[in-house]
Write a structure and sequence with these properties.
The structure is a single chain. By secondary structure, this protein is mostly helical. It has a domain at 208-357. It is 68% helix and 0% strand. The chain is built from 19 helices and no strands. The protein has helices at residues 2-6, 16-29, 49-54, 63-88, 96-107, 109-117, 121-136, 140-154, 160-166, 170-190, 192-207, 219-226, 231-254, 262-276, 289-300, 306-320, 336-356, 359-362, 364-368. The relative contact order is 0.10.
Length: 369
C-alpha cells in the first residue's frame, strides 16, 4: 500500500527540478547560458555543468516522457540503494523487518519530495552507497569512480576524501582524483564558457549566504530562523559547525582501526555533511537512508537495545514528516528535521565512541568478575 501511495508521483504534471535539467540543455542548444536564462523552467539552473551533459540523452524524448522516465529511474535508484545497504549489512530484504523498512522508506517525506521535484538525490544516494559497497569488496577503481561521479554531480558527500586519507586508502583517493578530474575536464571541453560562469558566479553561493526558508533544515537554516542578523549569529554558526566537525572526526580517529565500524563512520559523515552544509533542503535528507539503516542493523545486535531503537525511530519521525503550513507554528518547531538529524548524529557518535573503548570500560562489571 505504501508503494502504491508512492506511485502517485507519476500523476504529477511538472517536476520543477527536472525541468531545469531538461530545459537547461535546450537553453544551451540555443546558444544561451542556463545559469542566466530560464527557458520554460521555473528558475535558471543551479546544478554543475556536468549534470546537464549527463542528462543529454533525455533530449531525445519529449518533456512529458522524459520526466516520467526519470521518475522511474529515480525509484529504481532508491530501491537499488536500499538493497545494497541490506546486502552490505548481511540482512535479508525479503523479510518482515525488510518490508517494514521499505514501508518507512516509501512513506518518508524526503523520498516523496525528491520524486515530486524530479530531484537527482536518489542517484547520488546510489552512487555513494556503491562507492562504500565496492570499498568493502576491495574494488578500489570502482569505488573511486562511483564516489567521483557523486561528487561531480552534487558535491556530496564532501567529507569522504578526508576519511579515505585518514584510513590511508591511497588507491581509492588516486582513482577518485583522476576520475573527478576527467569528468570535470569533459564537461569543460564541451562548453568552457558555461563551466567558467558556474564556478565563478554560482558555486560561491553554495558556501555563503543565509537561506532561512523552512525547507532549509541545516544548522545554518536553524540558526538563521532562530536569531536575528548580526555578528553573534555568524559566530554561533561557525562555532557550532566547527564543534560538529571536530567531535565527528575525534570519534572516527579514535575508532579508525575497528573495521566493523567502517559503515557507521561513513554514515556519521553523511549525517554531518547535511548538518553543517550551508543549506540542506528537506529532499536532501533522503541521504540519511544509509546512516539510518547501518545504525539500525548495528543496534539490533546489541543487548537491551530498546531505548536506542526508540531513539532511532524518534529521529526518523522528526525527519520524515512535513509541515504544510510552517508559518503557523513557532519558529523553533520549524527545524524538526534538523533536530532529527542531530539526534541521529549524537547516537552515532555515542555508538562509535562506546565501541572504541577498551573492554574493561565497556563492560566494567564483567571485567571485575
Amino acid at each position: 500500500m505504501s508503494f502504491l501511495i508512492l506511485m502517485r508521483v507519476f500523476l504529477i504534471k511538472l517536476y520543477p527540478d527536472f525541468s531545469q535539467y531538461y530545459w537547461g540543455l535546450k537553453t544551451i542548444s540555443q546558444g544561451l547560458n542556463p545559469y542566466v536564462f530560464a527557458w520554460k523552467s521555473l528558475t535558471p539552473t543551479v546544478y554543475p555543468p556536468f549534470v546537464l551533459f549527463l542528462f543529454s540523452p533525455f533530449r531525445l524524448l519529449t518533456f512529458f516522457w522524459a520526466e516520467k522516465l526519470w521518475t522511474f529511474f529515480s525509484l529504481l535508484f532508491l530501491y537499488s540503494a536500499v538493497y545494497l545497504i541490506f546486502k552490505m549489512c548481511k540482512q535479508k530484504l525479503f523479510s518482515s523487518s525488510g518490508f517494514l523498512i521499505l514501508l518507512l522508506v516509501s512513506l518518508s517525506f524526503p523520498v516523496k519530495f525528491t520524486l515530486g521535484m524530479g530531484q537527482i538525490n536518489h542517484l547520488i544516494l546510489l552512487l555513494f552507497v556503491l562507492s562504500i559497497y565496492f570499498l568493502e569488496k576491495r574494488k578500489t577503481f570502482l569505488s573511486g569512480l562511483s564516489f567521483s561521479l557523486s561528487l561531480a554531480i552534487k558535491f556530496f558527500p564532501i567529507f569522504f576524501p578526508l576519511y579515505f586519507l585518514l584510513k590511508k586508502k591511497w588507491k581509492i583517493l588516486f582513482y577518485f582524483m583522476i576520475s573527478f578530474c576527467v569528468l570535470s575536464l569533459i564537461a569543460f571541453i564541451v562548453n568552457p564558457q558555461i563551466n567558467l560562469y558556474f564556478y565563478k558566479n554560482i558555486f560561491p553561493s553554495f558556501l555563503s549566504g543565509w537561506k532561512t526558508e523552512y525547507y532549509n533544515q541545516s544548522l545554518t537554516g536553524f540558526i538563521g530562523r532562530s536569531f536575528s542578523q548580526g555578528l553573534f549569529r555568524e559566530l554561533l554558526k561557525d562555532t557550532l559547525s566547527l564543534l560538529f566537525i571536530l567531535a565527528s572526526f575525534l570519534a572516527i580517529v579514535k575508532s579508525l582501526k575497528i573495521h566493523k565500524l567502517q559503515n557507521m563512520q561513513l554514515g556519521l559523515l553523511v549525517t554531518l555533511n547535511l548538518i553543517v552544509s550551508n543549506f540542506s533542503w528537506q529532499h536532501h535528507f533522503v541521504f540519511l537512508i544509509f546512516p539510518f539503516l547501518t545504525t539500525f542493523f548495528y543496534v539490533r545486535k546489541m543487548k537491551k537495545n530498546l531505548k536506542v531503537l526508540f531513539t532511532i525511530f524518534i529521529s526518523y519521525l522528526l525527519i520524515s514528516f512535513n509541515l504544510t503550513n510552517s508559518n503557523s507554528v513557532w519558529v523553533l518547531f520549524q527545524s524538526h528535521v534538523f533536530y532529527g538529524a542531530v539526534l541521529l548524529w549524537a547516537l552515532q557518535i555515542f555508538l562509535i565512541w562506546k565501541d572504541s573503548l577498551p573492554l574493561q570500560l565497556r563492560f566494567p562489571s564483567a571485567w571485575k568478575r
